[in-house]
Every structure is written in structure tokens, then in C-alpha cells.
């Protein structure tokens, strides 16, 4: 079982539009409404693969009730933490050329009692978990050290923990030695405080995160592929993608694929790349099923192309 923790979930509305023009009336070609939040998306991808998952998340108001309903319809066990504030609603505008514009609301502020209840809920559901995936931004009220506390408690209970967050929350959590962290290129550059222009730059940054506490780093480099760096080696994975429809949740699908395949080594990286590549071919934040995967399109190698320039360098 994979337990996911999403401290700041959302109700996500995605509209497919021909092009985004400021000040104009734009007619959507399609629309979707999905439960959102990085941990929620990991649970959705795990469930789509036919595996058991439990999603721990604070929920409030009508949007929160709808998130729970949508998750239940997808076969996901929900461990809700009732909060007074209303769950946030996010908007994504997906243009025909693949450009995505997102408007993310801040979400509710959690009281001290709600914070304690969230931690208690994670603890009570972690006993049967093969992995605990803590994902996304922290809502107002939670200290940047909150994820570090979760990592420490998870390890004390014998669980493995994957962390997908950024900024100070990531840096604080590194000291607790999470089993794997999954930054994208922008988050990786922010964490080490320098630009990334090549795959080699990304590799050095991932190694630096390991030196400061991460036991393994699964770094998403967007269209350029993914890196896995651990104490047993480093690998680079990429996949052929004919057309990108939406990249919403692609990184979350990658993390789910990685954990489903055991969360270690090149086989898990290949699964991560396959799931991410499948996700970008689907609308909105739809998570791929096994039928959507194309393992033959995935390449994983220990011969990392250090000099390859990133398609979208991060300054």
C-alpha cells in the first residue's frame, strides 16, 4: 500500500483552449474537473495501476466534499481530516500548442488542533504502508519544518518516505534524511542556489542534495528526461513522446510509477519515465493506466549525457 499525504489539496478545473488571449472571451474546447494536489495525483496514478492507496488530506467546505467524492469514485481510500476552511479551487488553461497556464489558490489556514489531527491521521494509517509519499506545498499554518517532522516520525515507525516539495520545506526536510526526494529542474536549481543548463549541472545538483541528507534523488528534467541518483549509482532515463496534450500531474505520475516499481534502481526509473510520458499524452490531470504505458519507448542508461543542454534551462 502506498500512503499519500497532501497537506494542501485542491479541486482542479482544467479548460482546453485554442490560445490564451488576454481581455478576450475564450471558448473552451473541453473541460475537466479532478481532485488535485500532488499527493492526490500520486494516489490517483497508483489506483489507476490497480494498486491500493490511501490518501490523507485536510478537507473543508463544498470543494472538499467534492474532492472526497471524486477520489472515492476512482477507488481511492480517503482518510480525511476535517478543517474549518474551504478546500482551494485551482484553474488550469491548456492551450493547443501544449502551453499550460495555472492559477492556484492559497488554500485554508490550518489551526493548531487541525495540524495535530493531520499528523495523528498520518501516523494511524502508516503502519501498513510500503511507502509514504508527502507531496506539495504546505498550507498556511504549517511550519516549514512540518515535512521534516513527518519524515522523522515515519522512519521511527519503520516506513520509507518519498518527498516532493520545494523551497524551505525541502531544505528543512533534507536534514531528516528522506528516502527519496523528487524535485523538478526549477526546484533543483532553487535548492542548490545556482542555474542549471545541462544534464551534468542537474547531476551535480542532485549529488549535492544527497550530500545534505537525501538518500536518493529522482529529478525530473521535463522533456529532457529524468535522473536517479542514489548510493548504488546514477542513471538517466528518457522517452519518446509524439505529442504533449497536458503536463498537469505528469511529475506526480512519475513518482507513482517509481514507487509502484519498488522505489529503487534503474527499473524503478524506467517505470517513472514511462508513467510520466504517458501522463503528458492525456487530457487535464488524467492519470495513466497500464494500457497507456509504452515501455518500449523508454531508455535508461548509466552513461549520463553530461554535456546535453537542457531544453528549458533554469536560471
UniProtKB/TrEMBL annotation:
Membrane-crossing segments per the record: none
Q: Which domain of life is it from?
A: Bacteria
Give the family this protein belongs to, as stated in its UniProt record. Answer: Belongs to the carbohydrate kinase PfkB family.
> Per UniProt, what is the name of the gene that codes for the protein in this document?
pfkB
Q: Which organism is it from?
A: Streptomyces tricolor
MF GO annotations: 1-phosphofructokinase activity
InterPro entries referenced in this protein's UniProt entry, alphabetically: 1-PFruKinase, PfkB_dom, Ribokinase-like, Tagatose/fructose_Pkinase
Question: What EC number is given for this enzyme?
Answer: 2.7.1.56
Q: Does the keyword Cytoplasm apply?
A: no
Pfam families xref list: PfkB
Q: Which UniProt keywords apply?
A: ATP-binding, Kinase, Nucleotide-binding, Transferase
Where do the Carbohydrate kinase PfkB domain residues begin and end?
16-290
Name this polypeptide is given: 1-phosphofructokinase
The answer to whether the entry has keyword Kinase is yes
Q: What class of enzyme is it?
A: transferase
Q: Which PANTHER family match?
A: 1-PHOSPHOFRUCTOKINASE (PTHR46566:SF5), 1-PHOSPHOFRUCTOKINASE-RELATED (PTHR46566)
Amino acid at each position: 500500500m502506498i500512503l499519500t499525504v497532501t497537506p494542501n489539496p485542491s479541486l482542479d478545473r482544467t479548460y482546453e483552449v485554442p490560445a490564451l488571449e488576454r481581455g478576450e472571451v475564450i471558448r473552451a474546447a473541453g473541460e475537466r474537473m479532478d481532485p488535485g494536489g500532488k499527493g492526490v495525483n500520486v494516489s490517483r496514478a497508483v489506483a489507476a495501476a490497480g494498486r491500493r492507496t490511501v490518501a490523507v488530506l485536510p478537507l473543508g467546505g463544498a470543494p472538499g466534499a467534492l474532492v472526497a467524492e471524486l477520489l472515492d469514485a476512482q477507488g481511492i481510500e480517503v482518510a480525511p481530516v476535517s478543517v474549518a476552511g474551504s478546500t482551494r479551487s485551482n484553474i488550469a488553461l491548456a492551450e493547443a500548442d501544449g502551453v499550460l497556464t495555472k492559477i492556484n489558490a492559497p488554500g485554508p489556514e490550518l489551526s493548531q488542533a487541525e495540524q495535530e489531527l493531520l499528523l495523528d491521521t498520518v501516523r494511524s494509517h502508516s503502519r501498513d504502508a510500503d511507502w509514504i509519499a508527502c507531496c506539495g506545498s504546505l498550507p498556511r499554518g504549517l511550519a516549514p519544518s512540518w515535512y521534516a517532522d513527518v519524515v522523522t516520525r515515519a522512519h521511527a515507525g519503520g516506513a520509507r518516505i518519498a518527498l516532493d516539495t520545494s523551497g524551505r520545506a525541502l531544505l528543512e526536510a533534507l536534514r531528516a534524511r528522506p528516502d527519496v526526494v523528487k524535485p523538478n529542474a526549477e526546484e533543483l536549481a532553487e535548492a542548490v542556489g545556482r542555474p542549471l543548463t545541462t544534464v551534468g549541472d542537474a547531476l551535480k545538483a542532485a549529488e549535492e542534495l544527497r550530500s545534505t541528507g537525501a538518500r536518493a534523488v529522482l529529478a525530473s528534467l521535463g522533456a529532457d528526461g529524468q535522473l536517479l541518483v542514489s548510493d548504488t549509482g546514477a542513471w538517466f532515463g528518457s522517452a519518446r513522446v509524439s505529442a504533449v496534450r497536458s503536463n498537469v500531474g505528469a511529475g506526480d505520475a512519475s513518482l507513482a510509477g517509481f514507487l509502484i516499481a519498488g522505489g529503487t534502481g534503474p527499473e524503478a526509473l524506467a517505470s517513472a519515465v514511462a508513467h510520466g510520458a504517458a501522463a503528458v499524452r492525456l487530457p487535464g490531470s488524467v492519470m495513466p493506466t497500464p494500457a497507456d504505458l509504452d515501455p518500449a519507448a523508454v531508455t535508461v542508461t548509466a552513461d549520463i549525457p553530461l554535456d546535453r543542454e537542457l531544453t528549458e534551462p533554469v536560471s
